[in-house]
């Protein structure tokens, strides 16, 4: 082994040759006794930060991508191609599993097959599909319109047929219903049973209201991977991870906590600059220079660059 081989290659410069490993890792996480805490990310920086914080996986947030990358609300304005491009950047920045918000699948069953194919090729370990009509809306908004449950069942079958890998190495499919805000919890539970029977690997009953509704969902689907989506200021009561786990939820999603925290910090920083005309007094509230470079693998890249310079010099000598 050469000195160069021993240095390793940072994420972003080498392809992960085994995407099945990420899918299998995600399934292991979903079957573990402790809940999977899933921070949402909207870019490669977010993926790096969740890695650094020690989270086992992350979630490519459709709302986060719409807000942070395109400056628009989460009302179905971002195309599949734009999502795929961003997911490629996110998965390239981390070796850990990424679950991707696939929204409605961007169309009918055939479109769902294309969505699964492209997102899987982009490195997704799991995908979430929902039963809204296009254009979709954030689950904690009002005014949703849903497809018939039968159409969503067909989409789940389509997603299963399009995914690669078998058993533990198959793409994880999470089925989401937004029926609670349109028809009530009974219909949401009815649909969730249908989606589970269609072959979904886990369920996401969006925007339940009150502890009693969370308890009922947990009882109804005990033992099934269940998503609780905590949206600060949203419709679901913000219980702790431990409380939600006790109610039967094995995935606790914080889809846009990081993006909103970064936006708030950015507002504070820019307000300071506008008011003071300098940044020296704000340096205790920004990432230090050395930590920034380490986060983006500059020491490793520098070592690699030097090693390759030695190779060039040796070949020429």
From TrEMBL:
Q: Give any GO molecular function from the UniProt entry.
A: oxo-acid-lyase activity
Native species: Actinoallomurus iriomotensis
Protein name stated in the entry: Carboxyvinyl-carboxyphosphonate phosphorylmutase
């Amino acid at each position: 082994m050469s000195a160069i081989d021993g240095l390793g290659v940072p994420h972003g410069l080498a392809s992960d040759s085994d995407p099945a490993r990420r899918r299998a890792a995600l399934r292991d996480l979903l079957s573990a006794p402790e809940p999977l805490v899933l921070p949402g990310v909207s870019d490669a920086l977010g993926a790096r930060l969740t890695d650094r914080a020690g989270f086992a996986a992350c979630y490519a947030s459709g709302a986060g991508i719409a807000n942070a990358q395109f400056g628009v609300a989460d009302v179905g304005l971002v195309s599949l191609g734009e999502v795929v491009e961003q997911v490629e950047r996110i998965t390239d920045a981390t070796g850990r599993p990424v679950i991707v918000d696939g929204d409605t699948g961007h169309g009918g069953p055939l479109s769902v097959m294309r969505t699964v194919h492209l997102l899987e090729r982009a490195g997704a370990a799991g995908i979430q599909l929902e039963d809204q009509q296009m254009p979709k809306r954030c689950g904690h908004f009002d005014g949703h319109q849903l497809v018939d449950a039968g159409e969503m069942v067909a989409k789940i079958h389509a997603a299963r047929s399009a995914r690669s890998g078998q058993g533990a190495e198959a793409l994880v499919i999470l089925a989401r219903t937004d029926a609670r805000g349109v028809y009530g919890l009974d219909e949401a539970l009815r649909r969730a049973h249908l989606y589970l029977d269609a072959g979904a690997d886990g369920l996401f009953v969006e925007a339940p209201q009150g502890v009693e509704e969370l308890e009922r969902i947990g009882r109804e689907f005990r033992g099934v991977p269940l998503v609780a989506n905590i949206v600060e200021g949203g419709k679901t009561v913000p219980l702790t991870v431990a409380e939600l786990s006790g109610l039967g939820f094995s995935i606790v999603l914080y889809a846009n906590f990081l993006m909103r925290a970064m936006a708030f910090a950015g507002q504070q920083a820019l307000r300071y600059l506008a008011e003071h005309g300098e940044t020296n007094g704000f340096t205790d509230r920004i990432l230090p220079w050395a930590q920034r470079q380490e986060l983006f693998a500059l020491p490793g890249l520098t070592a690699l660059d030097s090693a390759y310079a030695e190779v060039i010099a040796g070949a020429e000598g």
